[in-house]
Amino acid sequence: MNRNTQSDNSSMSPTQKQAALVCGICALAILITASVTWTLIRRKGGAAPPASSVVTIDEGDLSDYYQIDETSGAILPETEDAGEAYLADTLFLGDSNTVRYYNNGLISLQQFCGKEGIGIQAALNEKIVTFKGHDSRYTIPEAVAMMKPRRVVIMFGTNDNHMDVETFIGHYTAFVQAIQAAYPYTDIIVNTVPPVPRNHSNYPDMEQSKIDDFNMALLSMCENLGVKFLNSTEVLKDETGYGNPDYYISGDIHLKNSGLKAILNYLTTHAWITEDRRPDTDNIPTRTIEYTSNPSDPVAPSTVEPEVLYEARYQIDQNVGGTLTYGESSGRTSLAVSITDPAQSVTVTAVPSSGYVFVKWSDGVTSKTRTDTDFKQNLDVTAIFASASVQISSEGSGVLGMNYTFKATLSGKYTSADTLRWFVNGEEQKDVAGMTTISFIVDPVLANQSYKIYATASYNDCEIVSNTLTVSFKEGVSSSSSSGSSSSSSSSSSSSSSSSSSSSTSSSSGSSSSSSSAASSEDSQEAAASSKPDSGSSSSSSSSSSSSSKPDSSSSSSSSSSSSSKPASSGSSSSSSSSSSSKPASSGSSSSSSSSKPASSSSASSNSGSHSKPASSGDEDALGDALTGIFDLFNEGESPASRG
């Protein structure tokens, strides 16, 4: 065998030997060329090399690369924040960054259809969506038709960086048209492909300029298809034209919680509010999730999530009147809770805003706080609120001896006078509960004090608090006393009043009596005068003397009239009294007249039976008496208030 081989080799001609050498050299050159080409390709893209030798493409400053027509009618402009209710009516369609909304607890399972690693071409035809009780799997357009969303927000493109722009837009157009055909009643919003941070070493083949090209072409596509364009890339970028590194996992292209929240906030502040065109929202199936999250995803659950059996949804009727509180989360207008166990309990409280009361839940539950358990199906309820208010006002001059009125005006279907309560300086006045109109005559004990008055009403364990009035009653009565026989008359009017003297007889034993003089004015309006008996004893017989004055809201003046004493029969004296507050003199026996509150009648006897409260300057309980007696009867036979 060896001999034959040696014979063959020795038999090769020189020309043949040269040809074999040339072929060997060519083969070696081909191998070297292929090796160099493969190395360059690996550096440009493809599988990521070991971390120690990663080379990330740096395209330089891209701050001016992304240019779009800001006047385009397809771009959603900035609006007022549409809030959580806007998100609750939105179905999110996309890839890993959309799935991360759910993984970070920002949306519910019922609010998205997506899959990690999926591109726009596969999104059209791959059956990735599953529902509870359904054996079949569905494509995203098929699932949209079943879920009947108010609007969809589409965000694909992160996994399509290898495509050219024309191919990418072709697949994206087909996907949008499939959604339009499957469920023509939904509003379609196309979100930009998220930018990547400058340091994206874990994905070195990603090009930010390609993403910008995609987004500029997406705007033109939206204009052609009649859908809206959400330019969220502007909130995610920094000044260099790359993604803000604060929003991304280090060296990665996936958004952190802060970045995801930035997109959602941009969405609600660039809202597209349209008329709800959906014919119905019945028989919407419950989503389940059957794929395993990418283990390399930092927020992917380490264990398999329990199957979601049902979903409990809570919302505010028309987004006005109050908010929802669930656990430590408050101030929400909607929420969704995934039920993984029928025995799971969910406690939600409807909190009315100022000027509203809670009425009921849409399923008839009337308690603000509800606890739902023993689930057998999905729950979808709405908290209903109604406007309610109490406004109080006052009428009157606030001058002593004059009439003063408080009124409460209740508005709203669920406000009732039966629940009305009045408060003076924070203390409830239970004797006037349920009254909408309260009238009384200003008593001296109320003088020179300030009172804060407010009222409350209630419905279904909700308290309605009125405005607060601060009321000050002016000093309208002044009194004086002398050691001799004298009479004083006081007027609460700033105008002068004529005084007449009246004579009284004193007993032969030296006792003296005092009488009140009657002051007359053209407008005869009755007011009680303040009298102080002098020392000495008085008889039980009394005659009424009325002091007529014309009160005014200005300062008061007082005039005293003198009286002459004449001897009379022993042991008898005539004493006239008024129903005003009386102060005993420093010596002798006190007059039989008691200190009483003035009423609207012209006169009151000393034993009129009214509530007596001393008005002496040394009375330390004057304020307390005022708080408890501001709405009391001034005469037992007269009603101080009327029901509204």
List keywords for this structure.
single chain; 644 residues; alpha+beta; 5-stranded parallel β-sheet; 5-stranded antiparallel β-sheet; 11 helices; disordered N terminus; disordered C terminus
Short summary:
With 644 residues, the protein is an alpha+beta fold. 20% of the residues lie in helices and 23% in strands. The strands form eleven sheets. A five-stranded parallel beta sheet has the order 2-1-4-5-6, with helices on both faces. Strands 18, 19, 21, 22 and 23 form a five-stranded antiparallel beta sheet that branches. Strands 11-8-15-13 form a four-stranded mixed beta sheet.
Structural overview:
The protein contains eleven helices and 34 strands. It has 644 residues and is of the alpha+beta class. The strands form eleven sheets. A five-stranded parallel β-sheet has the order 2-1-4-5-6, with helices on both faces. Strand 5, helix 8 (208-225) and strand 6 form a beta-alpha-beta unit. The chain is elongated, with a radius of gyration of 46 Å. The N and C termini lie far apart (130 Å).
